[in-house]
Amino acid sequence: MRVLILEDQAIVGLEVEAIVRARLPSATVTLAATIREGRDVARGTVDLALLDIDVADGKTYELASDLDRAGARVIFVSGSTRADTPADLTHLAFISKPFSHFEIVRAIEEACAEAPGARRTEDL
Q1: Is residue 30 within 8 Å of residue 6, measured between CB atoms?
Q2: What is the pLDDT of residues 1-57, one digit of tens each?
């Protein structure tokens, strides 16, 4: 499984990464800080993406939509409000910051239960 974490606050990104690695020890986890970096990662296989919404180079809604259409499971982990999420993305999981370890683990488990196979996202 390949996991993308897009978070521009390093300490938060490292915390999410540690939780993901503990829950999915065989996963390949890539931490990105910008949408551009996230798109570079998404050109390969991404099975699961945990995305902050507001990052240094904009909002991740378009990337989230592209990943979702490509079959990746997307989880927003954000200080933004769920009410601000575009209507076409409200079906995606949403975890508010500050978050608990349990919330991240539960969202990962739910996403993994929904998506047992890898998805190709080469055309992003």
Answers
A1: no
A2: 999 999 999 999 999 999 999 999 999 999 999 999 999 999 988 999 999 999 999
Angle between helices 10-23 and 101-114 (to 10 degrees): 50
For 92: left if phi > 0, alpha if psi spans -120 to 50, otherwise beta; the answer is beta
The 10s digit of each residue's pLDDT in 98-123 is 999 999 999 999 998 875 444 434 43
DSSP state of 20: H
Residue carrying the six token digits 């997307």: 74
What is the number of H-type helices and E-type strands within the chain? 4, 7
Beta bridge partners of 4: 30, 49
